[in-house]
Amino acid sequence: MNKTRILGLGILVVGIIISFTLENDAVNFISSLLIGAGIGLFLTGKFGKKEYS
User: Fold this and answer.
1) Which of 3, 11, 37, 43 is most deeply packed, by most CB within 10 A?
2) Are 40 and 8 within 8 A, CB to CB?
3) Are 5 and 45 in contact (CB under 8 A)?
4) What confidence score (pLDDT) does residue 52 get?
């Protein structure tokens, strides 16, 4: 596992913990953003597109 996937897994876990512990509309929105970003980083394993020239 590379560092980006570990970071994605960490963000995913933090988002899940926040969604279960805090109850607020803004917190639910932020936790869903964290969960989505964590899943994206965990599955792809990279931050952006690599440009090939």
Assistant:
1) 11
2) yes
3) yes
4) 63
Q: Residue type for 36, please?
A: G
Residue type, 48: G
Please name the residues in contact with 28: beta carbons below 8 A apart, sequence gap of 6 or more: 19
Sequence length of the chain is: 53
Neighbours of 35 (CB within 10 A): 18
Radius of gyration of the chain (CA): 13
pTM: 0.79
Taking residues 20-49, report their average pLDDT.
Answer: 86
